[in-house]
Design a protein that fits this description.
By secondary structure, the chain is of the alpha+beta class. It is built from 19 helices and 25 strands. It is 28% helix and 19% strand. Its main location: periplasm.
């Protein structure tokens, strides 16, 4: 029997190799997963090469959060989750099967699972649990927990639902192994991204609460949940504060992904409703120790308060090598106003990036011209080779110029540019049946004005929107900005109750199943998805599947080029800009490794509190710490 199985496996391997599949690595346990090549750490991964493995533990990290919260359940559409909880992944509370690397793209290392494997046809994946993994109450994390979590998250989380669409079920193979089955073969990414599954405690959620009522994982809650990660909720004031405490006997503290990281004994998040108040809180110290800065104007002009001048607050720029997000005005096609491609194209021309970058952003920004900016996945020039072959199948459903013109956004590089581009916008509106009458853009048949609202929640939205709105009004388009509180904003966006929003869509170096959540027709109707533009395009759906089931890297790159090009030429969004740096200002109370991971720019989890510096600051700025 053993000889027969060996011969059968050899024949299968040869057949799969002939088909171009990676059979040589199939069905072998592996501890590190990567979609873009082998990890630099190999099998002898001890800890990240940038951390201080002997970093001291202790101290408090203070942070300010804008808005409020009303739930400790981040995996459902209802409610606003508290800081430290995230809708995809485990946040501060839950561990995932594997942990995404901080210094390499599309790479994961062991956490709850110490290894995984999959067959050569990518029809399933098996994860083996680390026997040391346990919940904060001391109970072991079990295969039943994993299976239950998969079922709950796929049923209730919009992000996990789309991400794991092709995962049909999860079954126990043994008391340590769980096997996930896939509905289709050839999804090269799926075995790896199963590792992103957050594992929830089945025994806690299915038990009664302190009042004897049945807990419900499908509803918001302010009962402190049981977790498994490095932190647990120590205290909270509903909507205004939440304090996390490091778990002293955290089971994974000695795993390679954790050594030298998660060094703060306490993480305190204070909620403030107003951005200006949050800024003042940072300048005074005590409530906010690290400020990620997004405002070019503030970075350039506002860091001149006393603590900066004395060196007690430090400004530092961290360059990044990860893909840049598509930040844009998202045009909601669920509104009839934006369903005409000509209209959407017309709305692209009044956005004067160059003037904004010069007058508002001090030249710090670069125009975004791809949904996969900063990677080899970004389309350019004219389609050719395999990409052209892919697009040819859909030629009759695509804009003809996609095949003959390089996609270019307007460039306001001269005094004449504004007149030129606004005229092009007016001409496109005319083709779509809109004309200017009495200074207003109106529908030529009904007289209805072209009017829409940009929904936002912070001052940055106003800075970005105001020049765009001013240019739109020059061609009679009545655009306005409405700022609302963050909780209301999140609820409206989750339910697609907006005309236009400013948002970001981040990508990885190996796109896959998450593309369904961004662009698919099914996601357009699912509350909480990231298909903000409401795209329902069969060509896009087909290209997304082509990416997900790409046979190799070259095929993936070609398919992604095709998707990028189709998205751009359909003008679903008005692209804005990016910066390939992370700006951080921080109070000088930290120890920071000399090296930081270039992929993400900075890993604050690798920092630690210098207790002497912390005490000195508290003395100097009385009452600030």
């Amino acid at each position: 029997m053993t000889v027969g199985r060996t011969l059968l496996k050899s024949l299968l391997t040869a057949a799969l190799l002939a088909a171009g599949l990676q059979a040589t690595q199939a069905d072998e346990w592996r501890t590190t997963s990567s979609l873009i090549g082998e990890s630099k750490y190999g099998d002898n991964f001890q800890h990240y090469d940038y951390v201080n493995p002997n970093a001291p533990k202790g101290g408090t990290l203070n942070s300010v959060v804008l808005g409020t919260y009303d739930s400790f359940n981040p995996y459902i559409v209802q409610g606003s989750p508290a800081a430290g909880l995230i809708g995809f992944g485990g946040g501060l509370l839950y561990d995932t099967l594997m942990e995404q690397a901080t210094d390499e793209g599309s790479t994961s290392h062991p956490l709850i699972a110490d290894a995984y494997k999959y067959p050569a046809d990518y029809s399933s994946a098996t994860y083996r649990l680390d026997p040391r993994a346990k919940w904060h109450d001391g109970q072991p994390i079990t295969v039943d927990d994993v299976i239950w979590s998969f079922q709950v998250l796929k049923a209730n989380s919009p992000m996990y639902s789309r991400y794991f669409e092709n995962v049909t079920d999860a079954v126990a193979i043994s008391d340590r192994e769980v096997e996930f089955h896939f509905s289709q073969k050839g999804n090269r990414e799926l075995p790896k991204i199963i590792g992103d599954l957050a594992v929830l405690p089945k025994h806690w959620w299915e038990a009664d609460d302190a009042n004897g009522k049945k807990r419900d994982v499908t509803k918001p809650t302010l009962e402190i949940p049981l977790g498994s990660a490095a932190y647990k909720i120590a205290s909270f004031k509903p909507g205004s504060e939440i304090v996390w405490q490091r778990v002293p006997d955290y089971w994974a503290a000695k795993l390679p992904v954790k050594i030298g990281r998660e060094n703060f004994d306490t993480q305190r998040f204070t909620y403030i409703l107003d951005d200006n108040a949050a800024w003042l809180a940072f300048t005074k110290g005590g409530l906010d120790d690290v400020k990620p800065e997004n405002s070019s104007r503030r970075w350039k002009t506002a860091y001149d308060f006393p603590a900066v001048k004395t060196g007690d607050v430090i400004k530092q720029e961290f360059k990044t090598t990860s893909p840049e997000p598509m930040q844009a005005f998202m045009l909601n096609q669920r509104r009839p106003l934006f369903q005409d491609r000509l209209v959407r194209e017309a709305l692209t021309y009044p956005f004067d990036f160059e003037s904004m970058n010069r007058t508002l952003f001090f030249g710090f920004n670069t125009r975004t011209s791809s949904y996969f900016q900063g990677t080899e996945l970004a389309s350019s020039g004219l389609p050719q080779g395999k990409e052209l072959e892919i697009l040819e199948k859909h030629r009759d459903k695509l804009p003809p110029e996609l095949f003959t013109q390089e996609f270019k956004l307007p460039v306001y590089d001269s005094p004449q540019a504004e007149r030129k581009y606004l005229k092009q916008a007016v001409d496109l509106f005319a083709k779509a049946g809109w004309v200017i009458k009495g200074g207003k853009m109106v529908n030529a048949k009904t007289g209805e004005p072209f009017k829409f609202e940009i929904l936002g929640w912070n001052d940055t939205d106003q800075v970005i929107s105001s020049p765009y709105i001013a240019n739109l009004r020059k061609i009679g388009v009545d655009a306005t900005l409405r700022l609302i509180d963050q909780t209301q904003y999140v609820n409206r966006v989750n339910n697609f109750d907006f005309d236009v929003i400013i948002s970001q869509l981040g990508q990885s170096e190996s796109p896959g199943n998450e593309q369904r959540d961004f662009w698919s027709s099914k996601a357009a109707d699912r509350p909480g998805s990231r298909n903000y533009a409401g795209i329902k395009n069969p060509v896009v759906d087909d290209l997304v599947d082509r990416i997900i089931f790409a046979t190799d890297r070259d095929d993936l790159v070609a398919a992604t080029h095709a998707l990028d090009r189709v998205l751009l030429w359909n003008y679903y969004v008005v692209p804005q800009y990016y910066r390939a740096v992370v700006w951080l200002a921080y109070w000088n109370k930290f120890g920071i490794p000399d090296k930081q991971p270039a992929y993400v720019g900075a890993d604050q989890n690798s920092w630690w509190i210098d207790l002497g510096k912390e005490k000195a600051l508290a003395t100097k700025y009385r009452g600030s710490n």
